[in-house]
Every structure is written in structure tokens, then in C-alpha cells.
Amino acid sequence: MTSILEVQNLVKNYGDFQAVKGVSFNIEEGEIFSLLGPNGAGKTTTISMLSTLYTPTSGDAVIGGHSVTKDPMAVRGVIGVVPQDLALYEDLTARENLVFWGQMYNLSGKALHARVDEVLEQIGLTDKAKDRVKTYSGGMKRRVNIGVGLLHKPRLLFMDEPTVGIDPQSRRAILDTVKDLNKQGMTLLYTTHYMEEAEELSNRVGIIDHGELIAIGSQKELTQQVGQSETLILHINENDDPQALIPSFRGITDVLEANVIGTEISIITPSAKDVLASVVSKANERGIKIRSIDIREPNLEAVFLHLTGRALRD
Amino acid sequence: MLKTFLIGIKDLRLAFRDRAALILMLAAPFVLTLGLGLVTGRFSGNNNSGLSDIPVIIVNLDNEQLGNALADVFTSEELADLMEPSASSDPEAARKLIDEDEAAAVVIIPEGFTRSIVPQQGDFNNPDAVTAEPVRIEVYTNPSRPTGAGIVKAVVDEFLSRVNEGSLSGGVSIVQLMLSGRITPDQAEAAGIAMGERLQTGTTDSALAIKINSSTADGEEVDFDILAYLAPGMALMFLMYTVSYGGRSILAEKTQGTLPRLLVSPTSASQILGGKVFGIFLTGAAQMLILIGASSLLFQLKWGDPIGVIVLVFAAVFGATGWGMFITALARTPAQVANVGMSITLIFGIMGGSFISLDQMPPAIQTFSKIAPNSWALDGFTTLGLGGTLADLSSPLVALLSMGTILFLVSVVLFGKKNLVQK
Predict the structure, then answer these.
(1) Contact A83 B267 (CB under 8 A)
(2) Per residue in B370-416, pLDDT tens?
(3) Which of A57, A84, A104 to mutate to test the interface with B (most CBs of B within 10 A)?
(4) What is the pTM of this model?
(5) CB of B98 within 8 A of CB of B105?
């Protein structure tokens, strides 16, 4: 496989604040690569530099053989961008939006209109193509937003948290679209703070936090970092203080990590069933009632917790 | 170039789909023109307040050469269509007629007016007569008829200006003749009288140096329609709204995310900025041409030489677009552009003469009004409405094109400094 994207020590500073701290990674042609991290981790800043919107403070990236710092115009012809926020003209119809953006990507004439028809079909809006975008639901607008990024059949598509703030049905449709595009041969860089999306979509995942890429690999490679550990999630009453239980949980043999996430307690252990009795016993000793317990297989949430001591939702 | 054009067309389409903008761009100037037309009697066939048959009362208490010359100006053949003069000998009664809205203005020529300017036989031996302050002519105007009153005042001002020029040059010449020894003080009296007579004659002969352009170059009579002043005045005022609306769209594209999206497409920043400017220009030109077309059809308004009108529209929109870009370059948010744009619309509307003829304004405001594209463009439209052609528009065209070019260049520098997108 050949790399379509090679990121080399990319840095972005805003005054004294370092938003991205020397990120390096590659994306192979034909894969879905997810950047997973909490809000403010530096995902959007990284994508903005890769898409030539922001100039890196230092470092570079090569996309399809073109440097983002030295030949940004050539890079723009290779990539497609689906921004996190909607970027559409709401007083234009879906078709008019697609035609305009297609023209901005140097499409014209019959080829343009044929491609617009294809994209409308792909995003399921052929019947609504003549309606103004402002009359659409949030999910429909998201689909047009994605459609704009697909018009010129980019080799590499950047999708920046495309499912934020939409209903589960639209989210499902978008995830299916991403998988379809990949099946058609498109390479995707997908950013998200939803572990489930990264797990479902990605060939490889980069975990980013505080502007640093702290882990990279396939889901299997990443979860191996936390061994074969399982995660116990304890749900307790809102009135009880979960923090009070942490020292006693950490004292239990075979408990590797114990952290508070909201009103939940997360415990990482090689064997959930072996520590379960001790955990319940310690809670009873403190007079804290456990409402329910989940046992989770090793996942990216556990990896993030293991690497940062925080949950993705923190 | 093609992308610049496509971005401009997209902005034109968006502007014409925004109902609120359409109301201010097209409906508001049209309705205001209609309203002012009704107020001025344009639609009722009552011409008393239009730019024809302006009722003016002349109170000539001077009854000597210059007073009579001024009265003759108002009754002259050339102003026969424009003025409807009547004579009175009672200043108070004349003022009362103005207060009762019976006329646009009264011109009171006081006793001794001529003598205060042109020395008469024996005055040269009377030091008081020579050094006396000139007696002032009073123009008592009707505030409800600003246009007609403004024209009467302009006629009087022009007459006095010519009298002043003649008086000053006459005085200087006599002093020079005496100093050089070519005439004696006794001969100076005769020379002064002779010059006074020439001054009076000259004033009468060329009294209509004040050009209302009542005829075309071919000598064809032209009736100036008051709407030919009001309609462009309103259209130009709301043109300023349109250009600020267009400028606001530059910052709005940033906040709605379409500008960053354009910047990551294979489209250069200069193509995008050029497209936005072209969009503002197109929208402004479309607004003006629609208003001109609609008023021509519905009000039978004659705007004048069509080529001159089109060229002037483009120049006016270009000048106004410069202002729209400048406001946008200084502002940080679309809301700031909207607020400043609305203020500029009103200020330039007033300063540019959309509501009140500039002749009614203090001299300082008349000078300051030259920064408003409305002022220059309205001058041009009035010239065309009075029968002028493209050849008569050199001043407004040069001013508007220079204004637009300078403001555009300054705006580009300001845009470059502030970076439209955080980089």
C-alpha cells in the first residue's frame, strides 16, 4: 500500500498556546483513518492544516505527492472536506448548492450536472433537490454538507465530526455512507470523539489528546496496550460521592485502574468476575448503593482511560 | 475569472432571495419616491411644488438698475416655464403669503440696493455712500417647498455673485487707473458710473448664467420632472444599503462556514474577494436598473439620455461598492456592517440631497457631501433629467470612479492586514 497522506511533525501555535504539538502519522490509500479524541484535543486544527485552511507553525504534510505548505492549490484538488459545521447557502436549493460547489471544484457543463445527479442520488435527496436547504431537517442538511465534499470525487476525504448534534437515524445513515464511500475506493480521514464510531469505521485509529498523538494503530493493536483487561462500570446514586470509593477500589488485588466519570466509576481489571465481589463489598462498607454494573470488553475507551487517566467524555 | 463571475452571480441570486433585503433594496425606495411624488403634487397634476411654475413673489423696493435687473431675471423668457413670478410692494404681506403656503419664496430687494453697489452721480463726493455696507437682499423661503425655494435662492445667489464680481473688478480698476495717473479723482466718478451701467447691462444680459438647463443642446424645451430628482435620490440612498448588505455577506460567509469551505477548494483568495466585489456591484446595478425601469414604466419618468443613465448607474454603483468594501474591511462582524451600513445609508442620503436639496444645506455640509457617492450621482441624474448627455457628466463620473478605486484599494490593504480567516 502507498501513503496518500504523510504528516511530518505538524505544529500549530496560537501565541503561547500550542494547539497541535508535533503530530506525525501516515494514511494508506483506501483506508479509513480516525482521529479519536475529546473536544479541544486538536482534531479540527489538525484537519484545518491538512486541508490548507491554516498554515502550520512548523512541520509539513504531503498529500497525494503535494506539500500543504508549498503547493496548497494542488493539495486542494486532491482532497475533499466535510466541515464539522454546516457550510451551505441556505437560500439556495440542494441542487444549486451542489452545482455552485462543483463549479468551485472546476466541474462544468454536462459532467457537472451528471455528477450532481449522482451525488443527489447518493445522499438520498433527489426528490428534494429543488427545495431550499433552509427548509431541510438537520440530518438532510448534513447529507448535503457531505455531498458537497464528494462532488469532485476526491482521493482523500476529510470528515470532521460529521455526526455531531444529529438524530440517531441520520447518524446511522452517515456512518453507512462513510463505509460505502470507502468500499468505492475513497480514502477517509474521520475525526470523532465517539469511540463507537471510530471502532465501527476505522482500519486504524490515532488517539489525540491535548494536541499530541498519544497512540496509533488498529483497534486490536491499541487495545493490546491495556492487555486483556476488562472494564467494570459501576452506576451509583447521584447523591453518593463516587470519589470516596476510589482509594478502597484501588486497594483491591487485580484492580489496575479506578476512576470517576460523572456519577459512574470505571475499573480496569484483568478479570471482572474475580473482582466483582470485592467491589460490591467495599461499596457496602461505605454505605454506597450500586444501582447497576456493566462489564465491557477491551475497547478504545479503555485505551484512552489507560493512556490519559480520563474518559473521552471528560 | 470564471469563478469570480460565478461567485458574483451566486451572490446576486442570494440577494434577490432575501425578502427583507428586497424590501429595503426595491420596495422602500419605490414607496418613498411614490410618497414624495404625492407630497410634491407630481401625481395630482398640481405643479405648484414641482420644478416648473415655481411661485415666487418679488418685492422690489429698490426700483433702480440692479433691483430692476434682478426682477427682470424672474420674468425673463428663459425662466418663463420654471418660474411663476408675481410682484408685491409690501414685504410683510408677501411673507404672510409664504407662511400660508401660497408661494415657494419671496425675494425682497431693499431700497438702496443698487446705490449700495453702483455709485450714482454725486456719491463720489459723499464718503458715506461709498463705504456703506451693501444692502442685503432677503429671500424668505417656504420650508414645505424646499426644492422650489432652493431654486429661487440659487437664482438670486447667482445674480449676486455676478454683481459682486462686477463691483469688485470695477472698484479695483478705478483705483488702478487713479494710481497710475491715467485718470484724476474727478474723472473717477464718471468712470465708476460708466462701469456701473455696464455692470447693470451685463447682469441683465447674462442673468441666466444660472443654468437650469431648460433646453437640450438642440434647443428643444425640456420640462424637468420633480421625480427625476426624487427617484434617483431615493434609489441612491438605498443603493448604500445594498452595498453594505453585500459587504456584510463577506463576513457572513465567514461565520456560516462557506468562506473557509471556499478557501479549501481550488479557488484563490483573490478570486473569492473579486467574486464578492462583483456580486455587490451586480446587485447594486440590478437594483438601480430595476428602479429606473419601474419608475419609467409606472410614473412615465424620463431619466434622460439612456447611455448617460447606464454609464452613470455603473459609476455610482462602483463608487458605492467602494464604500461597502471599506465599511466591511473596518468591521469585525456582520452585525457591525449592518449597523454602520444603515447609518451610512441615512447620513449619505441626507448629505447627498436625497431628502433636501443640497442648496438648502450649510456650505460646510455641501462641501462634506462630496464624500457621498449619492451627491455626485444625484448631480449627474439631475443633469440628465434636465436634458444633459453623457458628455455633461465628466465631473460626477470622474469623482465616482476615483472614489470607488481609492476605497477599493484601501479596503484590499485592510483585508490583507486583518486576515479573513484565522491562519
Answers:
(1) no
(2) 899 988 898 888 888 777 888 888 889 999 999 999 998 998 888 87
(3) A104
(4) 0.69
(5) yes
Judging contacts by C-beta atoms under 8 Å, the chain B residues touching residue A55 are 423
Residue A12 contacts B, CB cutoff 8 Å: no
Q: How many CB atoms lie within 10 A of CB B418?
A: 11
Question: Is the backbone of residue A293 left (phi > 0), alpha (psi -120 to 50) or beta?
Answer: beta
Which range is most confident: A44-58, A215-229, B106-120, B350-364? A44-58
Three-class secondary structure of residue B35 per DSSP: helix
pLDDT confidence of residue B406: 94
Q: Which residues of A touch B262 (CB under 8 A)?
A: 104
Q: Do B18 and A100 touch (CB under 8 A)?
A: no
Pairing label, strands A156-160, A79-82: parallel
Rounded to 10 degrees, what is the CA torsion of A229, A235, A240, A242?
Answer: 20
Please give the average per-residue pLDDT across B293-321, as a whole number. 88
- For chain B, state the CA radius of gyration: 27
Residue B376 grid cell: 455626485
Q: Where are the alpha helices (DSSP H) in B256-268?
A: 258-263
pLDDT reading at B93 higher than 60? yes
What interface predicted TM-score (ipTM) does this complex get?
0.83
Say which residues have a Cβ less than 8 Å from residue B239's Cβ, sequence separation at least 6: B284, B287, B288, B316, B317, B320, B373, B374
Instruction: Give the SS3 label for residue A3.
Output: strand
Cα separation of the two ends of chain B: 25
Q: Does B144 have pLDDT greater than 90?
A: no
Nearest to B257 among A51, A86, A132 (CB): A86
Q: Are residues A159 and A188 in contact, defined by beta-carbon separation less than 8 angstroms?
A: yes
Residue type, B33: T
The mean per-residue pLDDT over the stretch B38-43 comes to 62
A–B CB contacts, 8 A cutoff, strictly below = 60
Residue where the block lists cell 493539495: A75
Blockwise average pLDDT, block size 10, chain A, 314 residues: 90 91 93 91 93 93 94 93 93 96 94 95 91 91 92 94 85 90 93 89 92 90 78 85 88 86 82 88 87 84 78 62
Nearest-by-CA chain B residue for A54: B423
Helical spans, DSSP H, in B90-137: 91-99, 113-117, 127-131
Query: Residue B348 and residue B354: Cα distance in Å, rounded?
Result: 8
Picking from A100, A33, A38, the residue whose alpha carbon sits closest to that of residue A63 is: A33
